[in-house]
Design goal:
The complex is a heterodimer of chains A (about 270) and B (about 325). Chain A has helices at about 5-10, 30-40, 70-90, 145-155, 175-185, 190-215, and strands spanning about 25, 40-55, 65, 95-105, 115-125, 140, 160-170, 220-230, 235-250, 260-265. By secondary structure, chain A is of the alpha+beta class. In chain A, the strands form two sheets. Chain A has a four-stranded mixed beta sheet with strand order 2-5-4-6. In chain A, strands 3-7-9-8 form a four-stranded antiparallel beta sheet. Chain A starts with a helix and ends in a 5-residue tail after the last strand. Chain B has helices at about 1-10, 15-25, 30-40, 45-55, 70-75, 95-120, 165-175, 200-205, 215-235; strands at about 80-90, 125-130, 140-150, 160, 180-190, 210, 240-255, 260-275, 290. Chain B is about 35% helix and about 30% strand. Chain B contains nine helices and nine strands. The chains are: A alpha+beta (about 270), B alpha+beta (about 325). Chain B: Pfam families: YbjQ_1.
């Protein structure tokens, strides 16, 4: 292993002129950058989409478990807008897809009904121009996998199609005074709470699964289920499921051809 | 047991820090004068130059932020640390906090590069960006600190490359034909004012309905896009890629006389890279599973070395 000539010249202070590929921007770490390239892709640019959204109002009955459908829709719609703007930016720069997407929600300090949704990721193209890595319907694929995970996913014979998500904002019932008194001194499950949390999670995951079906995915990897309350009133909680829908590259790579990982014990910590 | 003698106070030390200062620069008043003229004329005081030159030619011990692992790795590539170099600029914001950041950082970077040139370095690695906010009105301290390195058999670089990545990552990038060359900054701010009442609906309309706020949203998008396009221009001076690890954005509402105005500002800081495109890592990558308990040194999803701003990545759950 040696340092390539190009790099040596640069270190000597000889400026290499002309960059036919143009300038790329990305928020990759060094490892991600190297592994995305190793996977056969080149970063083209940072893709950002955002949406500043005003949440509507919905009241929940104090003593009832129920989905806050207005809020569910808002949280979903706003993220979808941010994602589609990000995807539009990627399409504009001719990217095959976006990896390392991060979805964040930020509350505006001056109004708690206004939230900002941000989707940010790095647009990538296949270095050899292979057309087979696009997402659903020839649009750029999106994925929240890191550069490392992206490399590993391709190694295992799958490619990402689309980030899929589901949201459910839920009101968990308060217990009436009479019921609470009845519980004093006894060990008992608060079934209405259990039920509510179960139900909300179930709805979020189901919605995500429907999205995966819509893009004809075989499965969803790297699923994360977030619970957040975004400074709403007590007893209101959002369940948000997000993951990357994947499909086999041609046919699923036979498990025996995937090399065994090596085990290492690192000494530098 | 000379170190033990020192505790007993009966050993004569070869030189104390005080005497070293005297060697190079005379008394404190003289030093101050030298600093003043150096900053004014954009050069380094002669005692700093002298120290760095001595470190560069091996007469003074080298100083490095590297860990032993990194030292081993750089040694393999015949890379030698020389000295820690730094640049500082305490900057007062005149008309703009946002643009002040560009000037502050760039001046500090320029000063650090001067030190590296004085040491005869090829590159500065592991550059950390620091800011100190003391209660001095409308001003901030911008400091960069890094380790100057020299590559064996290579002439000194008149314009040393600046890398925010650690020694380990620096060598990894070089091996792949990519050189981190500097720090690029893109910043933009803009005011959105209530012009002829056109903004009124923005606040009034909200009410019961779910809806995207388009005026504010478009404004914010424009601010960010301008910051990113400034970043691209800055990148253009040093290389062909940017690993933008720091994003700082703020949308503030200012209300005077019931007349809301919005300030949007966005700052992006990136490590510039210069490399051949479509040229992949030259060797196989082995798939390993780390058997360490606790946080693994192999897993470091986001770099944390130059985290000067609270990024908006952390704020709010997803």
């Amino acid at each position: 292993m040696a340092i390539p000539q190009h790099a040596l010249e640069r270190l000597k202070g000889l400026r290499s002129e002309g960059h036919p590929g143009g300038i790329f921007t990305s928020d990759f770490s060094v490892n991600e950058f190297l592994l995305v390239r190793k996977a056969g892709f080149e970063p083209v640019g940072l893709c950002v989409g955002s949406c500043i959204y005003h949440l509507g109002i919905q009241y929940a009955s104090w003593s009832q478990n129920q989905e806050m459908s207005v809020l569910s829709q808002a949280m979903y719609h706003a993220r979808e807008l941010a994602m589609s703007r990000m995807r539009a930016e990627a399409e504009g720069m001719g990217a095959d897809g976006i990896v390392g997407v991060e979805l964040t929600v930020k509350r505006m300090e001056w109004d708690d009904k206004i939230l900002e949704f941000i989707a940010i990721g790095t647009g990538v193209v296949h270095a050899k121009g292979h057309p087979g890595y696009k997402g659903h319907n020839g649009k750029p694929f999106t994925s929240d996998l890191s550069g490392q995970d992206f490399w590993t996913l391709l190694q295992s014979g799958y490619r990402p199609l689309e980030m899929v998500m589901g949201s459910c904002v839920y009101h968990v019932a308060h217990q009436g005074m009479f019921k609470s008194l009845g519980n004093i001194g006894s060990n008992t499950e608060l079934t209405n709470f259990s039920q509510a949390l179960y139900d909300a999670r179930e709805i979020a995951m189901e919605r995500m699964q429907h999205e995966a079906i819509a893009v004809k995915a075989e499965g969803v990897v790297g699923v994360d289920l977030h619970e957040g309350s975004h400074n709403w009133q007590p007893h209101i909680i959002e369940f948000f499921a997000v993951g990357t829908a994947v499909t086999p590259i041609t046919t699923e790579r036979d498990a025996s051809t995937i090399p065994d990982p090596q085990l290492v014990l690192s000494v530098n910590n | 047991m000379s170190w033990f003698n020192r505790f007993r106070g009966n050993a004569s030390l070869p030189s104390t820090p005080d005497s070293a200062q005297q060697d190079f620069a005379g008394d404190a008043a003289e030093r101050l004068k030298k600093w003043e003229s150096a900053l004014l004329h954009h050069h380094l005081p002669d005692f700093v130059k002298h120290r760095l030159a001595e470190a560069g030619n091996g007469k003074l011990p080298w100083i490095a932020t590297m860990t032993p692992v990194e030292l081993a790795q750089t040694h393999r590539y015949r890379v030698r640390p020389i000295a820690m170099v730094s640049g500082t600029c305490w900057y007062h914001f005149g008309y703009s906090w946002t643009n002040g950041h560009i000037n502050g950082w760039h001046t500090a970077l320029q000063r650090m590069k001067q030190e590296a040139v004085a040491a005869g370095a090829n590159a500065i690695i592991d550059v950390r960006m620091r800011k100190i906010e003391l209660e001095v009105e409308s001003s901030m301290d911008f400091t960069v600190i890094g380790t100057a390195i020299r590559i064996e058999d290579m002439p000194p670089n008149p314009e040393p490359v600046v890398a925010t990545v650690s020694a380990l990552e620096f060598m990894r990038l070089l091996e792949a034909g990519i050189v981190p060359t500097g720090i690029a900054i893109g910043a933009h701010y803009e005011w959105l004012t209530n012009w002829q009442g056109s903004l009124m609906p923005l606040d009034a309309r909200g009410g019961w309905l779910n809806q995207p706020l388009t005026t504010l949203g478009n404004f914010w998008e424009r601010v960010r896009k301008k910051a990113l396009s400034e970043l691209r221009q800055d990148v253009h001076k040093y290389g062909n890629g940017a690993l933008a690890h720091i994003h700082f954005g703020e949308l503030l509402k200012v209300e005077d006389d019931n007349n809301p105005r919005y300030l949007g500002r966005h700052i992006v800081i990136a490590t510039v890279t210069d490399g051949e495109r479509y040229r992949s890592v030259p060797h196989d990558i082995r798939h390993v599973v780390d058997m360490c308990d606790g946080p693994s040194p192999l897993i470091k999803p986001r770099p944390s070395t130059h985290n000067v701003y609270d990024t908006n990545q952390e704020e709010g759950s997803i």
